[in-house]
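Many introductory courses stop at the sequence. We go one step further.
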Amino acid sequence: MSKIIDGLYYSESHEFVKVEGDFGYVGITDYAQHELGNVVYVDMPEVDDEVEAGEDFGAVESVKAASDLVSPVSGTVVEVNEALDDEPGLINKDAFENWIIKVELSDKSELDGLMDAAAYKAFINE
């Protein structure tokens, strides 16, 4: 059973957003890391890059597959999780603690188009 955390926003492409003020921490969900298997590489954007909701911003590679990362929100990347450069497997240990990028949100109304925990749980159990 995949872990799903209340209070986060979820996309159909299995990214999450944890909102703190005007910032969002974006990563992949526990469900996604289970599906991928052992993560061996995370391709991340640079600080100051712009991300657009619905657009690719990087990729996660595992021993089984590579998966594009699709941003659930638009904004400017203010931080990347550099720990993942050295240890991408941190995503397998705890996908929600090991976010990939921190974004300054340019349009918080985009969050309205994402799923809450209950909706995401129903979505992955379909």
